[in-house]
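Below is how a single chain appears once it has passed through the pipeline. First comes the sequence as given, then the structure the pipeline wrote out for it. We keep one example in the README because the format questions we get most often are answered faster by looking than by reading.
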Amino acid sequence: MAKKRFQTKARQPQPQDGDIPVVGAREPCPCGSGRRYKACHGRSASHAVTELVQRPFEGLPGECDWVALRELVPAATVELTLKESLPEGVPSVTLATVLPMAWPALRRDDGSVMIGLQNDASSGDISRDLADTLQRALTAEPGTPIQGRRAPGGGTSRSSGFETGGGPRLQDLLDPKGAFEPVVHSGFEFWVPDSQNATPDVTASLERANAAAIPTVKLSGVDAAYWCETPDKNHLRWVMPHAEEQLLDALARLHAAGRSSLGEGTRLVGSFRAHGLTVPVWDLPTGVTAEDIEKPAAEFAERLATALATDAPLTGDERRARGGLTNRQVTLS
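Resulting structure:
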């Protein structure tokens, strides 16, 4: 049997990973191995993307608000500004937390585009998937919902300089100087400018979404802090841009000193980890409104800035406080 292994011709050069196009997970790998893509080059491509996008919204204006709208806020919209001028017939592009029927995007009858943020990402890089959806929506026929798909492969992000395994990302398409100003809504009526002419499916989706929406308000005095109301108690969830280890040290210093609350009856209870950022969470009494928490939040921001500037080693009490905060940390993404 060994004799049959002698080669009769020169070995063909093997294609490099960057030369292999992206195909469906169950399709034969284009490299010619005979295996399915997901078990061949798709595995390494998926791993590379996962490693790259620990912070998929990094570099975008309002990164903390992108994370909040992706993970925490039920109903909100933001007007987006592209680097290039809008195509003819597209008057505006609007980011929405969710769209009816969980559509990834929608080209409305008037030509405007809405893109949904909370849809699943097929590639592991939310920024790249959203960019692909946006590009397709800009050229779709008016009145057309955009269906989800796996973003095409092959390319390097101009914003990061790293191989992404795919096409452009949001960082490549959006104006880095454009404002990112979320408008939080009490419901999803922004889906249907003319509710009288909405289809039965859209109307039913609207009713379900409104019934499930938690009342949420964005604080005006600090960045990316969102008050929400639940049946048992209210909460403040605040997405922060600081490095996680540095932020946890600062929160521990304040917690150990009894200065981590936002007023009587409030309590820092832990944090989320989402898309590379940390989101401290406070429990608030039921009667505490978003307006009530504005001043205490601004005062806390000042205390936090002082604690962040401190580089002294943690004391024993501060280490114990930090351990408690770490144990109550939940990863959302």
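The longest helix spans residues 290-308.

See the next section for the split statistics.
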